[in-house]
Amino acid sequence: MKIDLQELQQLAAVQPREDMYAAIHKALRAFMADTLLALGRVDVDDDADLARVTGQVVDLVDFCLSHLQHENAFVHTAIEARAPGASAAIAHDHIDHEREIAELRSAAQDLRQLEAALRPAAAHGLYRALAVFVAENMLHMNVEETAHNALLWSRYTDVELRAIHDALVASIPPQELMLGLRWMLPFMTPRERLGMLTGIRAQAPAPAFAAILDVVRPHLGEREWAKLARGLGIDAVPGLTAG
Ligand SMILES: [Fe+2]
Question: Does the predicted TM-score (pTM) go above 0.85?
């Protein structure tokens, strides 16, 4: 990718459009990358390690399944309402992904039950299958963030897009929401993290906000946490996150 200074100057000069994919796709990329690396180094002779890593694979693919269902229900519906047929290619990907998710899920569960001699080959097969799934999803998310965003931006105002996004988020059960934040907040930039948490703090009850900070904090480095605490105006000392 070549840096286009003129394009960057144009982008910097205008207010960025509402991008409902950006944060959740960063979360998905992080969750996928972490899980793939964990599977690559799993100890198949250690039942606890195998259960932890295959459990993470199941959690990941379940999260991916919910994510694509949210996109189908809210984003594709919005695209089809104003650009009929425009979400067809990506909807087709979603059908393939649902099948792959079911296969990865059962392979991860079956792996735990295998006798020791069969586990190394099964684990490596699952690792390669997950790598292909991750690769396909990386390309898929890029199409959504470019082609789908271009469509959404040409057919909807930012106010309308925020309303669609808010309705989507409101439909997500609390546990899934927390898992999303666990992968979203640590893996975005400090500026994005502070912006999102400032927005959450304005709406969520104080205990819920403190619980979110507690989930996120273990995954931040010392400097990242200090920047965030400073930005939020809270004490950076452990145990005082509710500030
Ligand atoms: Fe998608």
Answer: yes
